[in-house]
Amino acid sequence: xxxxxxxRVTTGCSEAPVLRERGQREVFCGLxxxxxxxxxxxxxxxxxxxxxxxxxxxxxxxxxMIFAEPRFATAVIExxxxxxxxxANEELDRVVTQLLAxxxxxxxxxxxxxxxxxxxxLDLSRAAGRLNEKFAPTTRILNYSGSGIETTFTQGxxxxxxxxxxxxxxxxxxxxxxxxxxxxxxxxxxxxFRRLFDDLGIGPVGFLPPRSSTELPAVGPNTRFxxxxxxxxxxRRVLEKRGAQALQAPYPFGAEGTTAWLKAAADCFGVxxxxxxxxxxxxxxxxxxxxxxxxxxxxxxxxxxxxDSQLEIPLARFLSRELSMRIAEIGTPYLHRQNLxxxxxxxxxxxxxxxxxxxxxxxxxxxxxRPDLTVCGLGLANPLEAEGLTTKWxxxxxxxxxxxxxxxxxxxxxxxxxxxxxxxxxx
Length: 427
Ligand code: SF4
Fold this sequence. Notes:
Elements: E1 18-22, H1 34-40, E2 44-50, H2 52-61, E3 72-76, H3 85-102, E4 108-113, H4 117-120, H5 124-135, E5 140-145, H6 155-164, E6 178-182, H7 187-200, E7 205-208, E8 223-227, H8 233-241, E9 245-246, H9 254-268, H10 273-298, E10 302-305, H11 312-323, E11 326-332, H12 337-344, E12 353-357, H13 359-369, E13 373-376, H14 378-386, E14 391-393, H15 394-399, H16 408-426
Parallel strand pairs: 1-12, 2-3, 2-4, 4-5, 6-7, 6-8, 8-9, 10-11, 10-13, 11-12, 13-14
Helix pairs in contact: 6-8, 9-10, 10-16
The structure holds iron/sulfur cluster (SF4).
């Protein structure tokens, strides 16, 4: 058994060679994270400082959600040269002032940078400092970058949470050990985990991001943190800088992953074995039962992951170990070994791992492998479907609650559904 309580049946992929590619890539930029972050931090507002392209991306990516009062918007800064920068700053101040006058309930405003050259020239951290002088403490103004040059897709959340860490209060010296769960989770999943930690006698437990920006948990050398998402490398680094210590664990996908994730916290907080088993037994059994419905359909099927959300490695581990799927290739935009150590240990020997992307070469490998299921971004799905490959949109895996015991069946269903659809079309 490894420290997280998971039986190792393979020697894993900790030392396995990784194919590193640095070619053209097909991944959303970090602005996309706003779609789930604005729902999570309920008194925050995300003001994208960008171009019409950014506004269109957000509109189409979030277009399915209709809000009377949306909590994100784009300040369009375009066609200004360096001489026009003073105007751009004035324009930004005007937009923020107008917004906060109209929406006094906003307690935290993020200025989110993007990649048009007009925006790169703007110093958003200075702008945030200047606006803070005017609006803090009623409204705090922070900034981070969601630019497509610096971030892919889920890295937007990493940049946002890393910007929040300096705002977290200092845990008083001598405070009892506390647990911090790091990474956005759907509220329903957060509530389930909170109940499990309560039943295990682990506490106090904080979540980053919190539901309200005024409830940022304290952090300090007595904080132990569990990552709920694998793509938070910068957030981890800044938390460690504040003295918090990361607990190594696989991510809470499936019965096994969830148990191992909870066990890492239980071991750290001295929960005895019998209590751990008693608290987790029912959930684990329910998850296993839910997964058994998909076993027959998914076992033996091959799956190919294009790099997209950075969830690829934990998901592949779940699919191979709990549903007996065969892994053709796991592509991930970045492979953070520190964040994925416990996951790499659990992958089958010989798994093909690739980091970054050279999209044409990877498409060739996918065509040669002819996987039963391909997980990829929206841009690749249609062409691959036209070539007869069955695809799953990676973005759905980020938007759907998939962590924890109660969601294990839903997670398996997400992979079974496209295969069902393909089977029905064949008939
Ligand atoms: Fe496009 Fe850059 Fe705006 Fe993202 S940030 S939508 S990549 S222009």
